[in-house]
UniProtKB/TrEMBL annotation:
<keyword id="KW-0813">Transport</keyword>
<comment type="similarity">
    <text>Belongs to the ABC transporter superfamily.</text>
</comment>
<keyword id="KW-1278">Translocase</keyword>
<keyword id="KW-0378">Hydrolase</keyword>
<keyword id="KW-1003">Cell membrane</keyword>
<dbReference type="InterPro" id="IPR027417">
    <property type="entry name" value="P-loop_NTPase"/>
</dbReference>
<keyword id="KW-0472">Membrane</keyword>
<keyword id="KW-0864">Zinc transport</keyword>
<keyword id="KW-0067">ATP-binding</keyword>
<dbReference type="Pfam" id="PF00005">
    <property type="entry name" value="ABC_tran"/>
</dbReference>
<dbReference type="InterPro" id="IPR017871">
    <property type="entry name" value="ABC_transporter-like_CS"/>
</dbReference>
<protein>
    <submittedName>
        <fullName>Zinc transport system ATP-binding protein</fullName>
        <ecNumber>3.6.3.-</ecNumber>
    </submittedName>
</protein>
<dbReference type="GO" id="GO:0016787">
    <property type="term" value="F:hydrolase activity"/>
</dbReference>
<feature type="domain" description="ABC transporter">
    <location>
        <begin position="13"/>
        <end position="228"/>
    </location>
</feature>
<keyword id="KW-0547">Nucleotide-binding</keyword>
<dbReference type="InterPro" id="IPR003439">
    <property type="entry name" value="ABC_transporter-like_ATP-bd"/>
</dbReference>
<dbReference type="InterPro" id="IPR050153">
    <property type="entry name" value="Metal_Ion_Import_ABC"/>
</dbReference>
Amino acid sequence: MLNFRPQEKTTLVRLSNAGVRRNGRWLVRGVDFSISRGEIVTLIGPNGSGKSTTAKTAIGVVKPDEGSVERMAGLKVGYVPQKLSVDWTLPLTVERLMTLTGALKAREIEEALAATGMLHMAKAEVQHLSGGEFQRALLARAIARKPDLLVLDEPVQGVDFSGEIALYELIKQIRNRTGCGILLISHDLHIVMAETDTVVCLNGHVCCRGTPQAVSQSPEYLKLFGRRAAGALAVYSHHHDHTHLPDGRVLHADGSIAESCFPGDGHHHHDGAENVHDHDPDCGCGHHARLHGFGPSEKRDA
Ligand SMILES: Nc1ncnc2c1ncn2[C@@H]1O[C@H](COP(=O)(O)OP(=O)(O)OP(=O)(O)O)[C@@H](O)[C@H]1O
């Protein structure tokens, strides 16, 4: 059930040509995208491609060294980082985890835990939670202050496939109920939430972007995981034709090495005609995405 008015297209955050440089190396460069209220943007990319850096830049934890980041005035962010610095040797209940970074009213804690299906575990020790329960507890903490933008850095880490589907379902429900914008970081290059409006693939810069669309039905997949799984996940498959070396230089498919990688640098090849070029045709990056959606034929409750 959609409780917010989707026509409200308020831009929450906009990155324009944003770049972050550390120790003489560009961690990310030329990043352009925006997130509006009710929108889901997913960042994908190989390890070290700059996903977390980009997310931190979007919320203001990291300042861009070039380009700009605009945020809606008074933007409230709920952030679930990739790693938590918590002393796991100390006892910590789910309830206490909720207030580690700031006070919350009992009612706010209760509502957030209920929304993530964790109310019955309020008194449970965090150390004993399963991977899926732990991620739900972190989600509860992030939504408790009713953020305009929810930033989730790998929210399905340590969660099995069924748990992953359930978590994506929950994230979708939170978006539908509150109308917040969601910036998701996916550790998986191939699987993103089907509800994602825009997938931004990073590899030190924006390689490509696209909309995960349901274009096919896989009987094996549906048999294995059921129809609900088909509605929750889509596959976004593509490849990179260059690798970013540890020193920041770029190794291209033809073996040549360049200082940086930008559209029109002449080091990218184009795929065969069978690929669907679903990203910005002007990007010129030479990366092409093919979407194999395991799509639902039925209309979802978005
Ligand atoms: N503060 C920093 N100073 C120097 N280098 C950094 C800093 N933060 C990140 N890096 C480097 O920047 C690159 C991008 O890191 P980032 O964590 O953004 O990538 P990622 O795509 O999120 O990676 P992963 O999938 O492994 O989590 C990495 O090579 C990382 O070592």
